[in-house]
Structures are given as structure tokens and as C-alpha cells.
Amino acid sequence: MRKKILPYLLLSPMILIMGVLVFYPIIATFSYSLKKWKLTAPNDIHMVGLRNYAAILKSDSFWYSFQNTLFILAVVVLLTTVLGFLTSIFLNIDVKWSGILLAVAMLPWALPPYVNGILWKFVFSSGYGFMNKAVIGLGLAGKPIEWLSSRWSLLLIVSLVVTWRSIPFTALVCLAGRQSIPDGLYEAARIDGGNRRTIFRMITLPLMLPFLAIGITSTSVTAINVFDEIIALSGYSDLGKNILVESYMTTFSFLDFGKGSAVTYLVMLFAGILGIFYLRSLNKEVEY
């Protein structure tokens, strides 16, 4: 009897923490999303069922934010996957300073997202930014360019900032995958007459696909939950908002806790679907 109870006693602190910090907020947010709850009308709080979700899905503002989210997601996943994979190949080179190179490559991942956004805002500033100085100095433009004043250029810059922050994790995962491949496979391939291209296509890439899947899924969740970089670059404007900023503005700017909770739940479900693929990638075995 004691052996049956002991595991639950040992797990009870974590179960309590998960219940308070994870499960309770999820349940509470869902209950809020089913209510009409505006702080501007505190005496008019009542259940409305799924009307908040229906109103959100009919809202042009939500679909505008959703389009921005999909754009950021596509650009970040594409660039992070390619550049992270290439970075891992570079970091796999056995040189004297490989440890220092790995530490330097991790710096963008270690910096807080808002700090990353502020740093890149200085780069793309219309008045004193490095990018404008470089473009004007090379004769590519006669006057400063307003990089952050149009929708698609702002979204592209946000995507680049998120990519810059996400590359180290993907590179680290791919580097671990590359170093876990036995050297005997490469020796056997070279003995059989395989060249570099064939070895990469038949051995390296297939065996690193599970690790790439981990990086892609993690990057996808990061791209959906972008918040700090957008706020640092453009503030709370409608120009570059994604669905997470839409949720924040609905809840805390317009004080509509009902609709804001509904948007938050939609974001959570979207990220949760990708999280399932992430966990499946972690549990997938690699056979050599």
C-alpha cells in the first residue's frame, strides 16, 4: 500500500503547482470566454455561450491579425530551419575555438525578446538607423526609408528579429542530432564510394529529420506567440499586430475580458496543436 501511495506523494508538489499555474488558468479563461464581461459595464456580466467566439470569427480585425500571424509563422519557420541547419553544420567543425563559437551563437537566444526588439529597432530606425545609413551610403536610396511604417515591411522585420532569436535553438538541436550520428556510417559510405553530396542526402539529412522536426515545431510555437518584438518595434498599433497582440488589446485596452479570453483560448488551441507535434517529435526514436 505504501509503495502505491509514495509516488503520488512525491508528485504532489508538482501536481499542485501545475494545477494552480496551468490547469486553473485554462479552465478560468474558458469560463470567462463564455461570458459577456466588460469592465466598462461591471453590472452586466452574464453567460453568452459561444457568442464571443462567433463574434471574433466574424471580426475583420481578428482575420487581419491572423493573416499577420501566418505571415510571421511562414517566414520564421522557413528562415530558421534553413539558417539553423547551416549554422549547426558550421558549429560542427572541430576547431580550437569551437566552444567559444558555440557560446557566441547562443547569445541571441539568451537575450530577452524585448531587448532583441529594441536593438533591431535602432537598426531599422528611419532617422539614425544603421540600415538607412548603409543603404544611403551605398547609393541605393537618396533619403531615409521608413522601414517600420508599412505593414509588410514591419512584419518582415518582426520575422527577421524572431528568426535571429530562434536560430540558436534550432542550430543547437541540429548540432546534437549531427553529433549523435555514428562515424562508422560515414566511414562505410566512403568505403562504398559515396561522395559528400550522396552521403549528405542518404545519411545526414534523413537521420537529422527528427531533430529538424523538433526545431521546426518549437519555432512554430515561438512564431505564433510573438509579442515582445512587435511591441518593441511598433508599439500597440494595429499595423503589425498578430493574434496575441489582438488578445492583449481586446482584454486590456478595450477592457472586454469575455472576447479577450476567447481570443486567448484560440491562440492557446493553435499553439497547442503545434505543441502536440513537438511532443511527438521528442518521443520519436531515431534508428541508425
Short overview:
This protein has helices at residues 2-33, 51-57, 60-91, 98-105, 107-110, 113-123, 130-137, 151-179, 183-191, 196-224, 228-234, 243-253, 257-283, and strands spanning 35-36, 46-47. It has 288 residues and is mostly helical. Helix 6 crosses helix 8 and helix 6 packs parallel to helix 11 (228-234).
Characterization of the model:
The chain has 288 residues and is mostly helical. The protein has a single domain (56-283), classed as MetI-like fold, CATH 1.10.3720. 74% of the residues lie in helices and 1% in strands. It has helices at 2-33, 51-57, 60-91, 98-105, 107-110, 113-123, 130-137, 151-179, 183-191, 196-224, 228-234, 243-253, 257-283; strands at 35-36, 46-47. Strands 1-2 form a two-stranded antiparallel sheet. The model has no long low-confidence stretch (mean pLDDT 85).
